[in-house]
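Trying the structure run again after the queue cleared.
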Amino acid sequence: MHLFGEKAGRTRERPAKQLTSARRKTALHWRAGNFLSDAQYLPISYHLTFFDLQVSMSLRHLRTSVVARASHNLADKKRHPCCGRWCAKCTNFYDSGARPGLWRSMKILVTGGNGFIGSVVVRMLRARGLDIRCLVRRTSRLDRIAHLGCEFVVGDLLDFSSLQSAAKGCEVVIHLAGIAKWNLMHSPFMFDVVAGGTLNVLRAATAAGIERMVYVSSIVALAGTPGPALQNEDSRSPLRLERYPYAEAKHRAEEFCREYSDRISVSIVNPGEVYGPNDIELVTAGNLIDFARSNPVAVCKGGTSIVYVDDVAAGIIVALEKGRNRERYILAGENITVRHLAGLTNKLLSLRKTFITLPTPAIRATSWLARKFHVPLPFNPEIVPYATLYWFTDNRKAVRELGVRFRNAESTLQPTLEWCMNTGRIPAGLRRAA
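Done. Tokens:
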């Protein structure tokens, strides 16, 4: 396909050798200054589209070039996934989505931008010079993003009027806010906040005329098998959802997104078990700390797809640019058992431990009794119903359509453990050359 589009007419194509050289220079420039230090993990499309933008703008044929080469294949479908027809408004939006440089005129609403994943998303967007508005609560901790120069709007997912105010003047939404703490997995507000809150965001976004949204769900909405089995974006949840309130709420939130997809273009991303620095709530880092402190180390039969937080954040941004309406994209890396996760943690810490695999029925019964009668345990009993299942996923769709890449398990855990040690969360006496 021609770089300049077949209708460029008055210009000649750049020779292939010269084009390759120009793209190489642009890629080096992009890595050096236009993104973060993790640019080597970003899809190659990040390094190519900036050059395409400059050429298209100089030729005054941006629309022809973008429509001819758009990654969502509008030319093939002949209909827009948002409104079902061709229109200048939708085409203008996807021009912006396909060309990062045009986003500087956009205002992006991010819910949950102060959280573990959201703070990295906001940091990456601000590094590109984008205008970010974050929905926060009055009690929210802002230390992870306070220095980034974002606009803060106080509101709540259950307060529709506050969401309307937050959405006013924004063009796109990234919705991450919800409940993710293990001690709140059985909260009576789980469904209202996660599912009902997502519905409120969709209503506020459509009322404000917002055309594009990415909903950050989880692999709990599509995986969770009793034995090792790969699940993909088309998989139906194998769980009895009423027993897993968090999974049920995420699943229903996704259904709301699909119900609204004729009014707003919504892509859904499903991160795996996310690790990385600055997990101050210890949602996942707590697992590694427990493995490091315990001896012997008690583990259960089960497994998960682990992923580094920066890879998830980069995937969310690419999904906003290139994701298709109504589609899921799994953002997860290596599939790993709980036993392997515990062993790799201690290996990276140069610790030798004894590992004991507990029978699944026994550990489930113990955790249930502990929750019911408030009996203290050396582990969080809320984790057990999820940890004793397998959350193995197939990420090939996200790799193929979005161009994302993911670190392996060792590269995911290493910086997380370093952060735990540097902040004293892993005791000094356990420190080794990690």
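The chain is about 40% helix and 15% strand. Worth checking whether this holds up in the mutant runs.
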